[in-house]
Design brief:
about 25% helix; seven-stranded mixed β-sheet; homodimer; 11 helices; about 300 residues; globular; 18 strands; 2 domains; Metallo-beta-lactamase, Chain A
């Protein structure tokens, strides 16, 4: 399994006894990312068994409290736990100043290095890349500067078809690297064995887009086109669409419209306004536009189980 | 009942699933105070039915996260709840800068006025006073600048002994004010009726001292002498006393020694280190020195039920 999302919090505005502000833990291609960090996130991480030491990258969408006020507590706890590894924090400009001021005032001499990546662009940009995953911003439209994040697995190597390879004595272990990279094999006779005979196509690279908070913003569709899983906020139902303009949030129908137009595999909605005690109605509204909808629920784990080969 | 303490959190260091950092809600003589505000305090306030609108004064002992990181979230929530009343915050210098920076970055345009009372003195001082209550600092010794707080009810008026008053036709309603203030009454004959015959002594004014975090600091004893209830941290047991010097905390025995020397009515201990899963041993250790000890437990309410007249 290469994509697994644990929802640590999915409610808007204020923490309540059974309502936790936004935070998600994403495991993608053996990378471990924390996305947003509302107050109480570290408690939720403990509750849902998220390993603190696995987190090396934290992505903050914007500096509203329900997405951000748990960060300083988590950083302090990392310090108390004697973390030594670098921690990378991506978020709006200002996040460095306020974090460093809090650490200074509390005289929290953390031993690890915090590397801030402050964002200011209003265009989608590549902000992280290694051999496994690339992360891009998704510029959103909220009351403060806000980005969503797009997480994309890098294409994987082809898998060796050992039974077929064994038919050719000339193919040695040192050739496997080229085979995994998709290259054909030329026998000493000059005959070319097609790569497709010697390897099996890998899984299609998975992708996940996180889009919260934002008002309806159709121009993100090209950025998130064909993602396997889209988390998109749906703070209100359509009956309160007039509040979206003022508060710069979306309705369930609008989230579903983005999902449909972007041809995503699955839509997860959350960030429900506290005025709704039953959130099933969000799913019902979204499904009038787009069928494959899940409701974000605290503590639930969403996996991407599509197993379609990237190519054959 | 004039003194009621609700423990919202009583653990040290990091929030965990069933361990909440320091916060207490004190009701004293119809005043409502929040003392310290670790991460998750607003959730605990909701859980234990602490009315948000009753809080007009918040006292922060020091700027370590387990006493302070929940403040900004609470202030933001006050804003979301459309608070308009002034809010007074008492705490170490720096609290204004960091709070205002966070509010600015999150563009939380709260409608109410936050009045900061930044503390820098190393001597006990009167920091709040009205007709019901006075609050004094208790300088403590921790790794950062720290104050405890002493809450003292103002002496109450004497209660009218209506049956006895009715024996004297000359005493009119307009005289009651003087009687409540303890004055004798002179009849037109020149005879003096002693106040004690016409009134009943009020309850002794209650007092509560909050002392966390601190290493053993005997010079606070004169400040907290004879308080009804003392909350004193006890992070470690005596067997780990050597850690107290390094971390500037106290043992249960040390807390009890302060309680004994200050002749307090009751000692409540808390701020347990996370290394102790069972905290009964803290009570046992403290009771080797001072008998009337309670363990702070999250969600518990401690009332001061002593009903001793102040004087007769």
């Amino acid at each position: 399994m290469s994509l697994k999302l644990t929802v640590l919090g999915c409610h808007s505005a204020t923490p309540r006894v059974n309502a936790h502000p936004t935070s998600q833990y994403l495991e993608i291609n053996n990378r471990h990312f924390l996305i947003d960090c509302g107050e109480g996130t570290q408690r939720q991480m403990r509750k849902y068994k998220v390993g603190f030491s696995k987190i090396n990258h934290i992505f903050i969408s914007h500096l509203h409290g329900d997405h951000f006020f748990g960060l300083i507590g988590l950083l302090s706890t990392f310090g108390i736990l004697n973390r030594e590894k670098d921690l990378h924090i991506f978020g709006p400009k200002g996040i460095k100043q306020v974090t460093e001021l809090q650490l200074k005032l509390s005289m929290s001499h953390v031993k690890y290095n915090i590397v801030f990546h402050e964002l200011t662009s209003h265009k989608s940009e590549l902000i992280f890349e290694d051999d496994k995953v690339a992360v891009y911003t998704i510029p959103l439209n909220h009351r403060v500067y806000t980005n969503g994040y797009l997480f994309k697995e890098k294409p994987k190597s082809r898998n060796l078809h050992i039974d077929n390879i064994k038919q050719y004595d000339e193919i040695e272990i040192c050739d496997y690297h080229n085979l995994k990279a998709g290259k054909d094999f030329m026998l000493s006779s000059g005959e070319i064995i097609a790569n497709e005979e010697l390897t099996i196509a890998p899984e299609k690279p998975k992708s996940f887009a996180f889009c919260s908070d934002t008002m309806f913003k159709p121009d993100i569709v090209p950025i998130i086109k064909d993602v396997d899983v889209l988390y998109h906020e749906a703070t209100f139902l359509k009956e309160l669409e007039h509040l979206c303009e003022k508060t710069k949030h979306s309705t369930a129908e609008q989230a579903a419209t983005i999902a449909k137009n972007a041809n995503v595999g699955k839509l997860i909605i959350g960030h429900y306004s506290s005025r709704y005690s039953d959130v099933e109605c969000f799913k019902e509204e979204a499904q009038t536009v787009f069928e494959n909808v899940d409701l974000a629920r605290v503590g639930e784990v969403y996996t991407c189980t599509t197993n379609i080969p990237a190519h054959v």
